Amino acid sequence: MKIIEVDSLTKYYEERTMFKKKRNRGIENITFDVNKGEIFGFLGPNGAGKTTTMRILLDLLRPTSGKAKIFGKDSVEESKIIKEQLGYIPGDINFYKAMTGGELLAYYEQLYGLPAPLKDELVKYFDIPLNRIVNGYSKGMKQKLAIIQAFMHDPDLVIMDEPTTGLDPLVQQKFYDFLISQKKRGKTIFLSTHILAEAQKVCDRVAIIRNGKIVAIENVAEILARSGKIIKVRFKEAVTIDDLKTNDVRGIIEEDGTFTIHVYGDINSTLKKISSHPVEDIKIGESTLEDIFITFYNGERND
């Protein structure tokens, strides 16, 4: 069952000056879907189009063209009904600072007009002091409060924009464990992040967005299984990227004299190319999601 369906979604921002009107790219022709009970990662750096996409899904922005459906309902025409089954963690959290944590959660409970069956459990799990004024909370405490308000009414879908910002590593791991427990309950998670280790830990599939366009949608386990090797090598003489290219190389990055080579297929032809130059140091390892992501964004691709 498809929980989110996005079809050819496009958003341009109009910028008016005294002399002309300019269209700036938000996203272009975005198409993907998210299955029920899936943790779906939406990966890209700042400015790639992640937040624009999420705001359209939430009907906080209207698309220039294309459509999105959530729970089979039009994200614009049936937004009110959709939001009754939805939780959201924004990228920029801005709570009422004069309220206590407990007052703020009670306010959101009233605002939703829905019961909050998970509130007490989540407050205990994430360990936040409800009697303290929110303005006195640390950044991590505010982030935990945002997580609680998004999940406390037990929504079927939660959309999250960089949800672990400000959390220390131990709390991050608790949050990942919590997400996996929600997935086991059949809940669906749409997770925007630039933290590749995060996506690798919890996501079933990821979409990689670059310059407003989807460049890949992959199953995490499958992409790692067939992503090949990463070779890091330094040479004793001047070598160029073109000197190291083979048909099996997916991407090459050079930084301060160290070449990072992502080999997608047979490693032997690449090793033969490398060995034709005097090598100072070489390391060979398995690819991570971060290596693959960097290939899409910074590397020279041969496809």
Descriptive report:
The protein has 303 residues and is α/β, with parallel strands linked by helices. The protein is built from 10 helices and 15 strands. The strands form 3 sheets. Strands 6-7-8-3-9-10 form a 6-stranded mixed sheet, sandwiched between helices. The protein has a 5-stranded antiparallel sheet with strand order 14-11-13-12-15, sandwiched between helices. The protein has a 4-stranded antiparallel sheet with strand order 2-1-4-5. Strand 7, helix 6 and strand 8 form a beta-alpha-beta unit. It is globular. The relative contact order is 0.13. The C terminus is likely disordered.
Low-confidence stretches: 299-303
How big is the Rg? Answer: 22 Å
Query: How many helices does DSSP assign?
Result: 10
Mean pLDDT value:
89
Biggest beta sheet attributes? 6 strands, mixed
What share of residues are in beta strands? 25-35%
Tell the overall outline. Answer: globular
What percent of the residues sit in helical stretches (DSSP H or I)? 25-40%
What do we call the CATH topology of the largest domain? Rossmann fold
H and E order: EEEHEEHEHHHEHEHEEHEEEHEHE
> What order do the strands of the largest sheet run in, or round the barrel if closed?
6-7-8-3-9-10
Q: What is the assigned CATH homologous superfamily of the largest domain?
A: P-loop containing nucleotide triphosphate hydrolases
DSSP strand count: 15
| Number of individual domains | 2
